[in-house]
């Protein structure tokens, strides 16, 4: 997207280096992802210094168990935020799909058929978001706040005040034992496999480049032949389906489901995506950054809980992290805006 | 005539607690709390240095903060310690890391107020498998036998019903027309209490129950039915309102109508925080509710006794709970596993209402 008008390769390079969105030199040396690696190392040192059992396998299992569903929902959201949109209905979708699965299972469906139905519900819910955002052009933040409430309301109608239990133990054991021979939870393993797929799609395919292009300049992308609406619609459907998958895993992990399952998790999901370095303005971000953010948040949360840090303080830590992750990557842009304002400032109403 | 939202939320929380109490009614046994305040705790057979994790619904709920303090006091007396760990939101997901931490830290027991009856079971089962004793209070978990756990019940249904009648009888000299201002007509817990009230009223031949009205736990409805009650029975001497919404609405009305308040005595189940001002201005002499501080204290002793092996989940197993005296484990019944009942509700009046902030 750089205004690349020169013909000589050497000049192209120097031109980019000089301008490239006005990035300071240190920004090129220190990528956000590199910073995340250092943060992760710091968290691990901090955790193991404060808690003797922090680096042991059981703790690793717990962390992966707690983060799995959140992490899975973060992947499609990464792509959605890359296009400059948002999906705040993710946790309600998790609750609704889990609720549908539980309700059908309770009505005598086989657990597998109930899971398939949950995934269909996810696709339908995602399609509704996609329709309103991509096809009708409504602002995604308003649409998905609406569906956040809508999906949770539907879940309440389907299930409240019942709690469904009795899922097959062969499946619910994913909430208690790691994948055989390892120390990782099933949900986290599924996340890692999906992360590789999402990473390849985003960083090595035409679709991925289209997503970046939409985020940087939707109009330009549209005129270059990128089917903006179709891609956005597709991403919301994908988000719905993966939130439903998370809902299924969440239900099996807890070996029960009630309509309020996962309430409030959307903030964790958004926080991870932003901490992962995905720009809230779209167009910039990496899957590896999001994976690192998942591990950092999981480890930090576990370390603080084990140290007996009050949950209010934990919320402050998480909130500050979120602010830092919005401020720092956009600092170049912010500095430029402040300078521009200063330049305008001294000029009075002439 | 409105009540603040937080107050109402608190009220519903308390009411939902009492549902659990009713579930235990099927036990049919009266209180076994031998209140024997010797002043000195008797810590026979309890190991020193125990660590008990208290996992409340969240760390902000004033009711549960009082319970946690009770637990801390119990473990202090026993030479152990309490770690309070939970989230700020009332969700199972926020409690699970705390359970995991208890396992990682090799805690001796967990005392939990479940945010979800079932979603915590897998994690608690893991804790139980790791040798941690599980005790629930405030809101029970329904995990069947996996894990086996002890429920600390806040009040026995029969006790709540009988003690409210006794409380009113004392204030009106056991004579005159009385009425009940309840929650919804279908409310199981209130109806169970009312059943015991009627039974207890037969012991006071000069007290006559003239009407039972239902305010649906809504301040506006409660006020309307209260006004109807007062105009239909001008000689009414007493009202029992076994719901925090009903009693606070009625107290507010009486406080603004001193001429009526002079003739009518009000009592029932109320939150000290809501009722404080009405006790001080003389509208209400006394009311009752269980004491969350004692609930936590009992849970702390129960957890320590189970962890020391000096008590078990067997029906009839007994343990000492410091200043509260001796307690016996009740048999499982209708959806509730082994349990103990705290005892008769605490009576609040001008002398102690300031000490409670829930």
TrEMBL record, chain A:
It comes from the Bacteria. GO terms for molecular function: transmembrane transporter activity. One of its GO terms (cellular component) is plasma membrane. InterPro entries: ABC_transp_permease. It holds the Pfam family BPD_transp_2. It is a multi-pass membrane protein. Keywords: Cell inner membrane, Cell membrane, Membrane, Transmembrane, Transmembrane helix, Transport. Its main location: membrane. It is found in: Cell membrane. The chain crosses the membrane at residues 29-48, 60-81, 111-134, 141-164, 184-212, 233-252, 264-282, 287-304, 316-335. PANTHER family: ABC TRANSPORTER PERMEASE PROTEIN YPHD-RELATED-RELATED (PTHR32196), AUTOINDUCER 2 IMPORT SYSTEM PERMEASE PROTEIN LSRD (PTHR32196:SF71). This is Autoinducer 2 import system permease protein LsrD.
Automatic annotation (TrEMBL), chain B:
GO terms for molecular function: carbohydrate binding. This is Monosaccharide ABC transporter substrate-binding protein, CUT2 family. Pfam families: Peripla_BP_4. Residues 52-309 form the Periplasmic binding protein domain. Residues 1-25 form the signal peptide. SUPFAM superfamilies: Periplasmic binding protein-like I. The keyword Secreted does not apply. One of its GO terms (cellular component) is outer membrane-bounded periplasmic space. Keywords: Signal. It is found in: Cell envelope. It comes from Actinacidiphila yanglinensis. Gene3D superfamilies: 3.40.50.2300. Its main location: other.
